[in-house]
Each structure stands twice: as structure tokens, then as C-alpha cells.
């Protein structure tokens, strides 16, 4: 099973929890952080101390940057959940900065479309808080499927 498939499963597990409880379990976030740490250790053993390892670390840090910005926003206002930023940092550390930013943008677009439809149908109000991680999971999956289809051509 590839890393991307494990991340998709991880995001959908968090999505179910986020929809039901309106919060994210700390244990699953710690599990994600441990996965990032184990990936670095695994890469250190395979690559050894070299410039390739430095490139991998900086790519992971840049990939986590959009999630770090979301986490900073969560501390400044309560419009964004802290768990959302942590999950975006975890998933971003496995991807590039561009991919992470695309996931966040696509998730925001999907959230806006769904909330607009729900507003028109009078199912929610303007003040209703919606879970963000399900949209992150769907956008991550959509972008990965697009990437996989592009690579097979």
C-alpha cells in the first residue's frame, strides 16, 4: 500500500470523526505525527546523511508550511479549527508545498460550493460551523487521482 493511500485512509478516518463529534481526536493526530517522524527515520536509514536527506527534509517542511499558516490562523481567530491546521501540516509533510496549497484551495472551493447549496436549501445558516477535514480528504483524493492518471499517460 502506498503512502498516498494510507494518507487517504487516515483523512477519511478523521473525516468521520470530524463530522460526528465536530472535533478531532488527539490520538489520531499523534499517530500522524509519529508517521511523519518514522518516515524521516526511514529515509535517514535508506539515504544516509547526505544532501538528498536535506532536500527531503526541506521539501517536507515546505509542504507543511500551508498547514502551519492555517494553524497560526486558528490561534488568531476561531474561524479555523486547530486540528485542521495540524492535519494539514501532517499531510503536507508527505507532499510538496504546491500540492498542499492546492489541497487547501480545492477544499475551500468544495466547502464553499456545499455550504452555498445548503444555504439555498435552508439546511444551515450563515453561523453554522462545518467540518473542514472531509473536504480536505476529498480534495486530496481528487488531486491524487488526477496525479496518478496524469502519470499513466
Throw out a few tags for this protein.
globular, mainly alpha, 153 residues
Fold and architecture overview:
By secondary structure, the protein is mainly alpha-helical. The chain has one domain (3-151). The protein is built from 6 helices and no strands. Helix 2 (26-47) packs parallel to helix 4 (82-92). The radius of gyration is 16 Å and the shape is globular. It starts with a helix and ends with a helix.
Q: What is the fold's blueprint, element by element?
A:
Blueprint: H1 3-21, H2 26-47, H3 51-76, H4 82-92, H5 97-120, H6 133-151
Low-confidence stretches: none
Structural class: mainly alpha
Sheet with most strands: none
Give the end-to-end Cα distance, rounded to a whole number of Å: 22 Å
Global mean pLDDT: 88
